[in-house]
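Private note to self, pasted from the team thread so I don't lose it. Backbone tokens:
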């Protein structure tokens, strides 16, 4: 898988780099392909065109770290893209068998004390932990079958959850990018392979995003939602790596203090508490 994936990733990133961004002069001639040509990348990196072509064809062996760094610089890769490139070019000889992720008791206790929505996700966007506010905001994870407790599945297969995202396209694209990162790290994960297969069959948009080879590492940003009970909400998300489980990320969703979104989250908390008591 990695050999073909490496070539496809290099081709996608090469097509995304305008010649002017790579410092190449505009000759005025019409270009037959978007982005950079193979021979241009090879010249900028300092490789022979033949060797770079073999890299894109998956026949380049195991490129050195210096070659990968030069390619990354030429293709203007950000840090998640560089990490993904390294995973594809240098896959481990023996990959550990994926294990079923479990939420630790300490992390469970932590998210239960939080006064903002919080989720714990794996690298393949599977949700393994949540608090009541997160269930009220997104969906009732506890009452869903395990395969549906996945943000990618929910965005592409559940119309109600998808409709809550005011900027669905950006959320969906970045979520697919997270799956791409996960596939680079653990290409033999059967659950991830099954998820990608299911979404590819049922969603043309997923297939389009998947073939763009966009990669994304969740860190911080803005989530814009429309909730059926409390209306529009803007929340800043921050992803925290959990020390006890490196493959798990705690994601908190925080409104700006004193904002309408903060009042909306307070109202949602009251509604949730009342519902629990009832």
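Design output:
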């Amino acid at each position: 898988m990695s050999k073909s994936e490496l070539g496809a990733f290099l081709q996608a990133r090469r097509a995304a780099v305008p010649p002017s961004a790579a410092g190449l002069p505009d000759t005025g001639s019409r270009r037959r392909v978007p982005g950079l040509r193979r021979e241009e990348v090879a010249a900028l990196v300092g490789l022979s065109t033949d060797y770079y072509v073999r890299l894109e064809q998956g026949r380049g062996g195991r490129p050195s770290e210096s070659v990968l760094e030069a390619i990354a610089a030429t293709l203007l890769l950000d840090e998640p893209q560089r990490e993904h490139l390294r995973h594809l070019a240098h896959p481990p000889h023996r990959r550990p068998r994926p294990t079923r992720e479990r939420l630790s008791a300490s992390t469970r206790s932590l998210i239960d004390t939080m006064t903002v929505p919080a989720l714990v996700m794996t690298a393949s966007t599977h949700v393994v932990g949540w608090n009541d506010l997160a269930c009220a905001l997104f969906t009732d994870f506890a009452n869903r079958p395990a395969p549906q407790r996945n943000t990618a599945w929910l965005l592409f297969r559940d119309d109600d959850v998808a409709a809550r995202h005011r900027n669905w396209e950006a959320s969906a694209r970045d979520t697919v990018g997270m799956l791409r990162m996960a596939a680079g790290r653990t290409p033999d994960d059967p659950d991830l392979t099954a998820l990608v297969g299911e979404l590819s069959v049922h969603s043309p948009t997923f297939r389009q995003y998947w073939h763009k080879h966009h990669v994304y590492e969740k860190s911080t940003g803005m989530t814009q939602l429309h909730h059926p009970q409390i209306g529009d909400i803007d929340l800043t998300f921050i992803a925290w790596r959990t020390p006890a489980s490196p493959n798990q990320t705690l994601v908190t969703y925080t409104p700006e203090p004193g904002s309408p979104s903060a009042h909306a989250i307070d109202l949602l908390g009251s509604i949730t508490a009342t519902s629990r008591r009832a």
